[in-house]
Every structure is written in structure tokens, then in C-alpha cells.
Amino acid sequence: MTIIPAIKKDYITKIAEQGKRIDGRTFDQYRTIEIETKVVNKAEGSARVKIGNTQVLVGIKMDLGEPFPDTPDCGVLSTAAEFVPLASPDFESGPPRENAIELARVVDRGVRESEVVDIKKLVITAGEKVWIVFIDIHILDYDGNLFDAASLGALAALSTTKIPVIRFMESGALEKKDLEAWYNRTSIEEIKEFYSSPGIDELIASKNRGSLKDIPLPMIEPPISCTAIKINDYVMFDASLDEELIADARLTVATDHKGDLRAMQKGLSGSFSKEEIQKVIKGALVNGQEIRKLLYEKTGK
Amino acid sequence: MKSDIKLINSEGKRLDGRGPEDLRKIKIESGVLHRADGSCYLEWGGNKVLVAVYGPREAVPRHCQNPLRAIVQARYNMAAFSVEDRKRPGPDRRSVEISKVISEALERVILTEQFPRATVDVNIEVLDAEAGTRCAGLTAAGVALVDAGIPMRDIPVACAAGKINGQVVLDLGKEEDNLGEADLPVAISPRTGEVLLLQMDGHLTAEEFNKAFDLAVKGCHIVSDLQKTAIMHKYQSVVAAEVQE
């Protein structure tokens, strides 16, 4: 616990009684959100998301590998978060601590359980060869509300991800017969277009990519995560760092385009009443719609 | 077969169209992060590097404090998605070595004797990698240290030269680094010409080394000007904003 927030707590709670926040926002209001995609050339998909001063970079890498034995007909998703010491004077290097693991797991759940990425369509041969999607979250600047920034970053990065078919064909890891098997399982037209394009073998061999294009990652409607915190009896969305450091409790709610709930996570040692939870859900729906609109606009959907 | 690839054509043009003594495109922006005491974002060809400086602050654990001066802890880290095949997160032997040589290079220019028992932490994150990340990282670190207001003798700067198809050239690109004959990253203190970092791998004759070294130093001076422009630009915009108020 740093000393400054303890002093600020008085101030934050005092103006909260008048319905105000330290940066002039209303309780339900988000800071300005910026999304920029395709920021890393080496990654299959990437996005930088800013919420106020908080800044997160998410990169997607893909590989071919074996599926998990209990889900032979699903591709593999793997999410990791790094709290690199660049982002805050309090972050230390070393293996991920519990905060980083919680963040990665919450983002992972948002992506996995809501089936944003259609992992059934990432199977080339069941039980043998599937695509593995690595979602790596890099925190660049920490000024509160990493949960929403990281989830939004992951969604934006996934939406712009292209499966690196050409690269894996060049290296020989992926063959034409694999593409046929993949198409037969999934009926993704782009795959057929890819392997039946004239002179494909020569193009791959000559490293001349010509008109060949990698295949977009199969995606469905993403749910949007919105996080609120509670200080004394006040519930506010998108906490800045000062607010977050003195928060009693935190609740993340992910809602989909139909207005249904897709994932939740309560954090910190404080508690919520049922009414407060409903308030958070309501705010998450309203803010979620706005953020979804922005996401579509920035990812061209 | 690979050695057959012509990295430089008969007109002296390289794969990306550069001449032998041309640098890749460089963009430097200082003061880009909110939490850090000083920061810098740098693009160098296909490299994208972000550096944050924290300190001087108390060094912990205490046994690593130096009672006479500050320690400098640079940490070079590559993002998992910054390379062709995903890199496992966390330090590997390569990044530990690069962190060490960069720390030592920076220690020489920082006035460490002014801050006994303290540490200056320099976090270098490689977000997108394409040959020459250590030079990019060190150059960005120099700007971030200035942005953090750390007293220094000079602004350190780095640039590499190398040898491709038997010819000495400046600032190796991706294929040149993979297929070329030698790579020579050099960091200097541009005011005095002191060498702060020097590494080489490959094969050079003594004569070629001299040529490559001089070329790398020449590159350093060009990049040094870009560093200073970036720093000036930030503070000019701060002044302009204050005048408007």
C-alpha cells in the first residue's frame, strides 16, 4: 500500500458524496479509449489500446501443434500477460505473479468461453494437427483498469489476425493435403480459394507471394468486458490508478451484442450487494455497446 | 544455396534499396509513457522499441546497493510476438547478456557518483524485431535517460556496421544480418568518441574492421543528431503549450 492513495482516499470519497470523481468524470463514464491495430509487423495480429493513460499492447502469434488429448477436435488458445517493469515503478521483472496470472485468465475466459475465436475451425486433422493461438498481453503504461484494456486489446488483435498459412507452407510444415483436409472440416471458402489458386506450388516454392493472402482467423461476435470498482458505497466504472488503489471491491462483467452476460469476475476483499451487482451489469451493458461500436469501427467490421 | 543470394547488386544497391552507407529509416519520440520517469519510443527500420527509465531510486534488495555510487540496471526484453516464431516470455541467455553490456555502457555516461545506494532502472522492451535491436534499445535508452532528467556526461548512442558480400556496409537489415559475413554493433559517447559498447561476430580482416568501425561511428553521429532533435522537439512542444496557457 502506497502512502499517497491513503491520503487521496479522503478526497476521493469526499467528492464522491457529491457525485464527482477526481478527473471530472461521472461514475459511469469511461476515459477516452483509443484503439490502434496492426502495430507489430512480426505478429499475426496486434493492437495497442489506450484507456486514458493506461496502455496495453497485445500480440497474436500462431503455430501448428497437437491438440489437448481431451479436446482433439479443437484448436488451442493460450493467453499470457506480462507486467513488464516498464509500465509501473511497482512492477518487478521475473515470472508472472498472481496479478498477471489473474489478468491473463480473465482475458482468456472472456475469449474462450464466449467462443470469440471459433476454435473448432482451427483443426486440420483431429487429434493430430491443429492451430495454436498465443495471445500475449504486454502492459506498457499502468494507470488503472488493466482488465478492460487487456480484454479489448485481445479482441482487437484477434480481429485483425491472419493465419500465417503462407509462412508455414514455405517451411513445409503445412502441405496442400492439409489445406484440403482443413477445408473439408470447416468449409471456410478462403482455404479452398487459397489452395486451388492457379500455380500455388510454384508460387510457394519461388517465395513469390503474388496475389496469395493469408486467411483471417475465424471469429464470431465478441463480448465486451467492463469493470467497475466500489469505494465505500460508490460504484464507479473504469477506475483510474488512484481510485483502483483504494477500491474495496472490483467487478468485471462481459456482455455480448444481444445484451446477454458472458463472463464475470469479482476481485478484491470488499463485497457487493445484489443491487450493486445489477447496477454494474446495467452500466456494463451501456458502456459495452459504446466500446463495441468503437471496436468495430477500428477493426473494420 | 543461401550464400548465393545477392545482398548487394552491381550498382551498389542493397536488398531494401539502400546504398552501402545508408541507415534505415529512424523515428524517435521522447516522453511517451505516463508512469515512467522518462521514456522513449523508437522505430529503426522494422524494429520498434519502447524504453522506460525509473530512478534514481533506492536499490533493493539492499545488498546490491553501492555505498559510493548508483547502480545502473538495464533490462532488455523481447515481447513474445516480436519475432517470427513466438519467443517464450522471460529472460533467456541472449537477453541477459545484452542487458549486461547495455547496463555497463550506460553506467559509463551516467553521473552515478551523485546517487550513492540508488539504482537507475532502464527497461528496454523490443516490440517488433528486425536486426539491430540492441543498438535501437541503447539509442532509445539514451533519450529516455535524458527525458528522466538523469545527469549524464553525454547522450549515449549506438549503430552497427557489417560486411555483406565482401563489402563493408552500415546498419545491417534482416537478411543481411542472417546471411552476411560480419556484424559490428558499436555504442559511443558522441562528444568524446569514447567507445561504450563493442561486439563483433563473423569474420573481418583488420583493415575491414577499421573501415567498419569508422562507418559505425559515422552512423552513431547521424543517429545522435536524431536523438537530440527528438528531445528538443518534446521540450519545445512543452514550452509552446505553456505559452498558450
Quick summary:
By secondary structure, chain A is an alpha+beta fold. Helices cover 35% and strands 26% of the residues of chain A.
Structure description:
The complex is a heterodimer of chains A (301) and B (245). With 301 residues, chain A is of the alpha+beta class. Chain A has two domains: 11-161 and 217-299, Ribosomal Protein S5, domain 2 (2-Layer Sandwich), CATH 3.30.230.70; 166-205, no CATH class. Chain A has helices spanning 3-17, 98-112, 146-159, 165-170, 176-186, 189-195, 200-205, 241-245, 274-299; strands at 33-37, 45-51, 54-65, 76-82, 123-125, 129-141, 162-163, 215-216, 224-231, 234-237, 249-255, 261-267. In chain A, strands 1, 2, 3, 4, 5 and 6 form a six-stranded mixed beta sheet that branches. A four-stranded antiparallel beta sheet of chain A has the order 10-9-11-12, with helices on both faces. A two-stranded antiparallel ribbon of chain A has the order 7-8. Chain A is elongated. Chain B is an alpha+beta fold. Chain B is 31% helix and 29% strand. Chain B is built from four helices and ten strands. Chain B has helices at 93-109, 133-147, 174-179, 206-244; strands at residues 26-30, 38-44, 47-58, 71-78, 118-128, 157-164, 167-170, 182-189, 194-198, 201-202. In chain B, the strands form two sheets. In chain B, strands 1-2-3-5-4 form a five-stranded mixed beta sheet. In chain B, helix 2 runs parallel beside helix 4 (206-244). Chain B is globular. The mean pLDDT of chain B is 94. Classes of the chains: A alpha+beta (301), B alpha+beta (245). Chain A binds chain B through residues 39-44, 46, 53, 55, 57, 59-61, 63, 80, 82, 84-89, 93, 95-96, 134, 136, 138, 140-143, 167, and chain B through 33-36, 46, 48, 50-52, 54, 57, 75, 77, 79-86, 89-91, 121, 123, 125, 127-130.
